[in-house]
Amino acid sequence: MRSDRSHPLITLVVVLAAFITVPMSISGAAVALPGIGADLHAAGAPLQWVMNAYNLTFASFMLVAGSAADLLGRRRVFAGGAALFALGSLAAAAAPGAGLLDAARALSGVGAAGVFASGGAILATTFDGAARTRAFAALGSAAGLGLAAGPTLSGWLAGTLGWRASFGLHAAVLIVALTGTGFIAESRAARRPRLDVTGAVVFVAGLGALVLGAVQGPGWGWSNPGVAALLVAGVALLAAFTVLQARSAAPLLDLSLVRDRRFLALCLVPVVTTFGFVTLLTYLPTYLVGAGGLSAQRAGTVMLLMTAPVLAAPPLAGGLVNRGVPARAVITAALAMFAGGNTWLTVIGPDTPAAVIAGPLLLIGLGAGLTFGAGDGMAMSLVEPERAGMATGFLNTMRIGSEAIVIAVFGAVLVSLTATRVGSPGLAAKVAAGDLSGGDGAALAAGFTEALHLLLYGTAAVCAVGTVAIAAALAPPRRPAAAVATADETAVTAR
């Protein structure tokens, strides 16, 4: 059900502005950490939770926000999410200590979940056909712009005005976006049962425990009883959530969505993207600075080879689909680029010129941009408007949840592989963080490189398997033999 008031162009601009800010707040905050630590006299876990608190609540509340958008109104949840995000950003900018800063970031994560889950649903119910494809391509470019511009913009602000200015910028953009929400048509599901509060609590607790266990695993140790308890509790609660949803008359997640193999396959596209693209976005700069000896500014410039295509490729993907190229073909080609690019990137070494790694970085970035441009739009085309928020919430839960878990596991494996080559877990942790001052620099760089190469091959293998599985699941259903025979007979009779 929709209200009559609708301004599609303003709607698109408002949603894009908010969407730029969400990933910018992730990638930009990482650059501000050194300044935050020095100013607030924070280090270790309290400092890392500036990132972790945001990611934890962002992932955990995504599905709840999506279902709430269908029931309460997508514009209402979008505006509420943007307001919470802005409030959290203002509180972060004014925080006098690390504890309050972490709490403010957690609040921003809840708001970001509302923006992401309802923003995609708003576009899915505002646009149709080719216009919807173009809208989601623009959404992919906006997310890519925020991800790519975040480190550069936040680094400049932190260096000139201080780290608080970067959070103030996020709040300012969201406040501007809020002024345009009055031009967005309200829409909600025609049938409006009560929100499944029990399911929401169980899901948030389960995913939160799972993500928290993955985030703390590298620091506490994977054999730590606390980590094991969190992971087991997370899996158990998510299993209980599935049972509750199967029995609920008004589920938070309609399991028929997950039973649709094409929709589920499209929800796995962001997971493969996390393996093939996001892990490198997180850890490759550390390698370039530590083993490669580049300055942070130079490393950021090299990373543009991988992030710049993310801005240009989504419209390319949308254009190809609108010109008749099957979205399945675009997505399959994009995922295959992750496998090929990660394998190709094993040419990297401590003294490798940027020109040598330009090819694989461009290929990986192109793959990411194509998935951003085609994947979400195709997923939403499979879902009726009444469940647009739920579907967007689940899709982005897979995206953000996989990022939090995969990045933590990738880092732990990188440290473990490095430790077998440098002889000390403690030294390996420093090396993986880009600090090679604890011994023979050349030997440490060589060990870091060998470990990274093994991870790149492993990542390529995961992406290759994911590509084949997703391509198979997206294949159109075969017609029964009897139907084919009947069609052939009809054609013969017609002649």
TrEMBL record:
Gene3D superfamilies named among the record's database cross-references: MFS general substrate transporter like domains (1.20.1250.20), Multidrug resistance protein D (1.20.1720.10)
PANTHER family for this protein: EXPORT PROTEIN, MAJOR FACILITATOR SUPERFAMILY MULTIDRUG TRANSPORTER MFSC
Protein name from the UniProt record: Putative multidrug resistance protein MdtD
Subcellular location: Cell membrane
A GO CC term attached to the entry: plasma membrane
Ranges annotated as spanning the membrane: 48-65, 77-98, 104-124, 136-159, 165-185, 197-215, 227-244, 264-284, 296-317, 329-348, 354-379, 400-419, 454-475
Chief location: membrane
Topology relative to the membrane: Multi-pass membrane protein
Keyword Lyase among UniProt keywords: no
Sequence ranges assigned to domain Major facilitator superfamily (MFS) profile in this UniProt record: 11-478
Gene Ontology MF term list: transmembrane transporter activity
UniProt cross-references to InterPro entries, sorted A to Z: MFS, MFS_dom, MFS_trans_sf, Tet-R_TetA/multi-R_MdtG-like
This protein's UniProt keywords: Membrane, Transmembrane, Transmembrane helix
